Amino acid sequence: MAHPKLMVLNGPNLNLLGEREPQIYGTTTLAQIEDLCRAQCENCGFELDFRQTNFEGVLIESIHEARKTAAGIIINPAGLSFTSVALLDALKMFDNPKIELHISNIHRREEIYHRSLVSKTATAVIAGLGPAGYGLAVQAMRLLVDEGRV
Ligand code: CA2
Predict the structure, then answer these.
(1) Ligand 1: which of 9, 10, 14, 103 to mutate, judged by most atoms within 8 Å of the beta carbon?
(2) The CATH number of the domain where 141 resides is what?
(3) 3-class secondary structure, 58
């Protein structure tokens, strides 16, 4: 039987991961993170749908699509975490578990990174574990789906 789909969504600027600010974000590229997610999805029994966009509307449309196709969403909304009520609204309409993920520990950083709007609807939040956080998020999603958590 086909595995349930897991959508992993990445917001603005994350396509440049590994190129700038290695002291905060490390040197791992987004392509390497996708490989990590794919390996972990194989372990955990998910079909991976991995995306990145620099456009708020495109991210929102992916969430609309996920409402029909995905058992869960892992989302690193990047800068949109702190600004986008529209993204919060879209995620509220997703009825399966959603994990908000940040590579850095946003709470240890400047004040502007402290208040994520997305956290208000996230089932769980992962921050500060670096790129490894993505693999752990896939494992955590398996648990949330199995337990019927939303
Ligand atoms: O730690 C994270 O994963 C963040 O979501 C990354 C966002 C930042 O606005 C959040 O507060 C925390 C920024 C992503 C910027 O992308 C970069 C890409 C390459 C190098 C540096 C940053």
Answers:
(1) 14
(2) 3.40.50.9100
(3) helix
Please give the positions annotated as active site.
25, 102
Q: How many domains is the chain partitioned into structurally?
A: 1
Span 119-135, mean pLDDT?
98
pTM reported for the whole predicted model: 0.98
Does 145 score more than 90 pLDDT? yes
What tens digit of pLDDT does each residue of 26-38 get? 999 999 999 999 9
The whole-angstrom separation of Cα 141 and Cα 150 is: 10
Nearest 5°: phi and psi at 90? -65, -45
Nearest to 90 by CA among 113, 66, 112, 70: 66
Residues with CB under 6 A from ligand 1: 13-14, 16-17, 19-21, 25, 76, 78-79, 102-104, 106, 113
- Domain span holding position 10: 5-147
